[in-house]
Amino acid sequence: MTELMDLISTGWMKYIVTVVVFVAIFTFYKFLSRLVSKTGRRLELEPHAVNALRLVLRVATVFSSMYVIFALYEIPTTLFVSGSALVGALLGFGSSQTINNIVAGFYVLISQPFRVKDYVKIADLEGQVEEISINYTNLYTPTFNLLKVPNTQVMNSRILNLTHEGFIKYTFTIGFDHAMTNQALMENCIQPAIDEFHEKHLDLQLRKPEAYLDSGDRLGKNFLIRIFIPKGEAKTLYTLRPELLDMIMERWYGCRAQ
Question: Where do the domains of the chain lie, and which CATH numbers do they carry?
Fold first, then answer.
């Protein structure tokens, strides 16, 4: 064993061993990460719980890698396990974006303003939460893209969670001028479009969409349209919302043309 350590400690051999160990750690991490995902699906665990387990696994991998560096390069392990050293490191790098994001990530996981697969609005951003990682919260946005939001921004922003009782309650605004009365708009444009839309997509919705008069002034009036989509089905929301809006507007155009 002593001879092996002497060999490892000599020159380039140490670097080779470092690379091999890190490849092994990374491979083992990927294996465990896939295992956690598969087990979560098999046991039908909440996506948020699976995400938390993967985050803990990621942190454990980082600390394991650090320990390898300390051991191979003979850095005193007391620096690794010492609570005072850890506090000093946090204080020393506390102003950095990376450390702030890590702390904010754990705060988001613990306080749970939202969970994985919830549909949220974070300041002027919105989307479905796909993952809460160490540094970022990943949102699947209405543009069908994945947006990485720094956890510090999440923690410092107003958060609106649109997911309740197992489905997304999404509300959007549609405006009209005063050419038609409120009752005429509801009876001839909005409600018929909602009825047709609901019948067409019964298999994709949990509840029938709703409409309310929201506000008005001398220039026009605004109605709120609320649509209900199963939790985790943001792609369905992004497809159906513009379709319902188009159906309402087409009826409005038809009434205006008469």
Answer: 2-81 (no CATH), 167-257 (3.30.70.100)
